[in-house]
Design goal:
The strands form 7 sheets. The chain has a 4-stranded antiparallel sheet. Strands 5-6-9-8 form a 4-stranded antiparallel sheet, with no helix packed on it. Helix content is 5%, strand content 43%. The chain has 2 domains: 94 residues, Alpha-Beta Plaits (2-Layer Sandwich); 139 residues, no CATH class. The protein is elongated and about 105 Å long.
Length: 296
Amino acid sequence: MAVDLVTKMWSKTVAPIQSSDLKKATIEQQEAYQITVDDPATTLSTILADEDLPSVGDRLGTSYLFCRSVNVQRLGPVYYIADVKYSGEVGLLGFNANPTSLPPELTWSDIETAEATDEDFDGNPIVTANGEPITGVTLPIVDQVLTVKRNFASINTFAIAPYRQSTNSDIFAGWAPGTVRLIRYNAVSKNSSNDVQNITTNPQSTAYWEVTAAFQFRYPYRTTNDKAWYSRVRHEGMYVKDAQGRITRATVSGADATKPVLLKEDGTRELDPANAHWLEFKRLGSLPFSTLGLLS
């Protein structure tokens, strides 16, 4: 039992070109094949596996259209018709336009996080009626998020990894160095091969990649641009430094302190909550975000 002959009958463009955003376009292509077999008992799997009949995932010529479905109908004991449908993303200029030449799609949105603070909106210290600092107060911070979608001929996931632990060292989307983080990077293969293992180990084997990346922008509240993403904690502890530089246990009313006390920048005791000192810690590295190629 085997396929005797597969013959292409016709092809047509179902939707010449469609675009919802005037940036990218989609095309659908349809083909028909007639198939004859040498034995009425030939199975459908044998027909679908024939090398002369397109398979789901196959690329249509040099275009960026891919086979989405193959519908085989039996019209006689040894005669079949196969309807093959392709679709894909192309440029606005035509059928063979490279999707990697399309401009990026940009979407701005918001995200809210809670950050520790000891000041109100006007800069006044958050204290009790007796001047004692109140701990655990957080301030809602609303950051902007830019989501970028763009096609690439290839990707390097290892090279992307350091960006997840870095801020921008260059001006990115109009924002100063140190204010932007990469918070998400997704890539979907638009491939013409069913060899998943090959695509995983060799990203260049796919036709192209649809990449979606998200960036979070942090305004430098009460700090400088380069420290916008630093961790910020109030300087306090159970030990204090005296005038001679010796470190001893903090005391309150002659007894050992049972909770942290405020400290000045040099580690000595701070008695005025209005002068609370904050420590800032660098958590992220710095890399040029322009090299990601997402906006240019």
